[in-house]
Amino acid sequence: MPPDYSPAQLAERVVGGKTPAIARAISWAESVDPRFPELLRLLYPRTGHARVIGLTGAPGAGKSTMTGALARLARADGKRVGIVAVDPSSPFSGGAILGDRIRMQELYTDPGVLIRSMATRGHLGGLSRATADAVDVLDAAGFDEVLVETVGVGQDEVEVIRLAESSVVVLTPGMGDDIQAIKAGLMEVADVFVVNKADRDGADRVVTEVLQMLELGEHGPWVPPVLKSVARLGTGVPELRAELERHRQFLLGPEGEGRRRSRVRRRIESIVRERLLAELSALSGTDGSLDAHVAAVEGRTEDPMAAAEALLSALRSGGRKE
Amino acid sequence: MPPDYSPAQLAERVVGGKTPAIARAISWAESVDPRFPELLRLLYPRTGHARVIGLTGAPGAGKSTMTGALARLARADGKRVGIVAVDPSSPFSGGAILGDRIRMQELYTDPGVLIRSMATRGHLGGLSRATADAVDVLDAAGFDEVLVETVGVGQDEVEVIRLAESSVVVLTPGMGDDIQAIKAGLMEVADVFVVNKADRDGADRVVTEVLQMLELGEHGPWVPPVLKSVARLGTGVPELRAELERHRQFLLGPEGEGRRRSRVRRRIESIVRERLLAELSALSGTDGSLDAHVAAVEGRTEDPMAAAEALLSALRSGGRKE
Fold first, then answer.
1. Which tens digits make up the pLDDT trace of B95-151?
2. Exposed site from A241, B1, B130, B276, fewest CB < 10 Å?
C-alpha cells in the first residue's frame, strides 16, 4: 500500500475489508494522525453493526484464552471477528509465553479474524479514545463481533471496558485480596462474571464471594450471572456466549438506550480530554510558559493551582488547533 | 471544629499540626472545595520539608505491611510520619482483613503518625492531583516523612507514584505473568525494588528476573537496587530504609533537579486536566450542548471527533470559572 493514501481512499479500502487498510486506519487512530478525524467522519456512518464485547481481569486470569475461545465459537457461527488487545501481557500483544501463542495460531491464520494490539503507553486518557476508534474501524470494515481484551485494573482500563456493550470480568480461584480490588473497580462495569480455571481448588469459593458481593452491591434490572469455565479446554465458553446473547437481548430494551448514550458521552469526553492535553503540552514547547510556571512553583513563589489557572487562561486564548 | 473555618484559619491550624484541621484540609482537596485553592496558596510556602516516598505493587504484595514497617523505623528515628493510602484494598483504607488492621493498630494510636486514605473513585485524572495536595497539607503540617501507598497498576496509579521523590515497587514470589505488567508499567518509576515475602519459594527467581529486566532496560545514572524482605517480620526493612536514604542523597545531585522539575510539571498538568474536565461536565448541566451532541453521534448524523471539536470551541468561549 502506498504511503500517501488520502482519508477517502483509505476509508474505501477499510469498508472493503482490506486488512492492510484496516491496520493503517487503526495506526492513524493510535498515533493521532491529522488525517484520522476526516477518516472517522467517512467511516462513522458505516458503524453500529458490530457487537462489542469487553473482557477484563488480572494478568494470568486467562482473558486471552477466553477471548480466543469466544472468537472460535463466533467463527463457527460464521461471524467475522476482530480482537483488540489492550494489555501488554496478552499473547495477542506478543507479550506472553510461546505456548499461548501456539494455541492462538489458528486465529492468526484465519482470514475471518483480525487481531490488533493497542500500545498502552504514551496515552493519558487517550487509550480509551484510541481503542474506541479502533473498534469503529473494525465495525465499519464489516466485522460482526469485536472482542476487546484489557487488563482490568486502573481507571484507564476501566474506561476502555466501559466502551463495550457487554463486559466480562474473568476471575480465577486463589485470588484472595484481588476480590477487594474488583469490588472497588470493576463491580459496576461487569455484565457477566466468569470464574476461569475452575478445575482448580477454590473455584466455588470465588463464585460464592462474587454472589455475596452482588447481593450487597447495587445493580439495576440486570443481575450479572456468575459462571465457571476452563477456557483452555473450552469448558463453559458456550454458556458464556449464551449469557452474552441474553445480555444483548436485554440491551435492546429501555435500559440499553441509557447505556448506549453514556458510552457515546464517554467517547466524546475522551476525545476532548486528549485534545486539551495535547494542547497543554504544546504550550510548553512553543512559548515556554509552562516551563516558567514550573520554575516558579518549584521556587515556591507560586503555588501549583495558581500556575494551573494561568495556563488555563493561555489555553483558552490559544484558539483552535488542528 | 466549627464547619465555617476560613482558609486562613484552617491554614493556621494545619501549620500548627492540629489533626482535625489536617483531615479537613485533605477533605477540601479531595472534594475540590472552592476554598482549597486559597488554602493551598497559604500552605504552599510552608512545604518542601517532607521526604515523600511512594510504595506500589499488586494487591497482596504486602505494601501496607511494608509501609507500616517503614513508618515504625521512621518513628524510632523520632520522625513524624504521614501515611496516604491510595488503594481501596489497603488496611489503611479499612478494606482489608482484621489481622492486618490489628497489626497496624499501634500506628493508629501514635500521635506522631497520621493515616489518611484517599477515595480512588470519582476522580478521572484528579486522583494524582488530590494525592499531591494531601501530601502538601501533611508537609505544611510539619510531617517529616510522607509514605504514599498505591496499588500500582493503571496509569492513574502510576501518576500518583510519580509524585513521590523515591518510589518502591513491592514484588512477591510466584507472580509469574505480573512481571510482564511491571515491565510495561512500573519499570521506569521504580527507584528501589523489594521482593517481599522472601521466605516463600521463588524469591531468588524474582530477584534474578528483575535484575535481568534492569540489564535489558534503560535507566539513568541511578541503578535501582533489588532487595529481599519479609515485611511482616521486619526483615529487610532497615536495608530498604538505607537504600531510600542513599537515593535521597543521589537526588541532591544534578539528576535530582530534573526529577523535581518534572514532578512539579506533572502536578500542574494534573490540575489543569481536572479543571478542564470539570468544566466539560458542567457544559452538559448548563446549556445541554453535550447532550445534543451525544444524541447526534448516537444517531450517526455527527461523528465523535466533530462533536468533540464543537465542545472544545464551547469550552474556550466559556471563559474563566471559579
1. 544 455 566 777 888 889 999 988 765 544 477 888 999 999 999 999 999 999 987
2. B1
CB contact under 8 Å between B272 and A265, yes or no, is no
Give A279: exposed, middle or buried? Use CB within 10 Å, 0-12, 13-18, 19+: middle
A193 neighbors A224 (Cβ within 8 angstroms): yes
Query: A39 and A56: one domain?
Result: no
Q: pTM here?
A: 0.66
When mean pLDDT is compared across A16-20, A231-235, A316-320, the lowest value belongs to A316-320
Query: Measuring CA to CA, which residue among A142, A120, A115 is closest to residue A43?
Result: A142
Are A265 and B290 inside 8 Å of each other by CB?
Answer: yes
Domain with B109 in it: 48-252
CB contact (8 A) between residue B177 and residue A59: yes
- Asked if B299 and B188 sit in the same domain, the reply is no
Chain B positions in Cβ-Cβ contact with residue A157 (cut-off 8 Å): 154
Q: Which among B177, B266, B300 is the top mutation candidate for probing chain A, defined by the most A β-carbons within 10 Å of its own β-carbon?
A: B177
Q: Spell out which residues of chain A touch residue B276, defining contact as CB-CB under 8 Å.
A: 273, 276, 312, 315
Is residue A262 one of the residues assigned to a domain?
no
> Do B224 and B310 have their domain in common?
no
| Residue, of B42 and B276, whose pLDDT is higher | B42
**B48-85 pLDDT, tens digit each:** 999 999 998 877 788 889 999 999 999 999 999 999 98
Number of domains in chain A: 3
Q: Which residue has the cell 488547533?
A: A321
> A122: buried, middle or exposed (CB in 10 Å: 19+, 13-18, 0-12)?
exposed
Cβ <8 Å between A40 and B271: no
Helix (H, G, I), strand (E, B) or coil at B116: strand
* Nearest chain B CA: its distance from A32 CA (Å): 12
Q: Kindly report which listed range (A118-127, A279-288, A300-309) carries the lowest average pLDDT score.
A: A118-127
Q: Of A28, A45, A62, which one is at a domain's C-terminal end?
A: A45
Q: What are phi and psi of B148, to 5 degrees?
A: -110, 120
CB contact under 8 A, A273 and B280: yes
Span A28-70, pLDDT tens digits = 998 888 899 999 999 999 999 999 999 988 777 888 899 999 9
Q: Which tops the pLDDT comparison, B306 or B154?
A: B306
> For position A318, what pLDDT does the model report?
61
> Pick from B261, B268, B305: which is nearest to A307 by CB?
B268
Q: How many CB pairs under 8 A join A and B?
A: 208
Q: How many CB atoms lie within 10 A of CB A52?
A: 22
Please indicate, yes or no, whether residues A147 and A30 belong to a single structural domain of this protein. no
Mean pLDDT lowest for which of B1-15, B23-37, B81-95, B301-315?
A: B81-95
Question: Around Cβ B286, how many Cβ atoms within 10 Å?
Answer: 11
* Whether residue A95 is found in the same domain as residue A15: no
Contact criterion met (CB below 8 Å) for A122 and A129? no
In a domain, A160, yes or no: yes
Q: Which residue of A has its CA nearest to B184?
A: A88
Give yes or no: residues A87 and A151 share one domain. yes
- Average pLDDT of chain A, as a whole number: 83
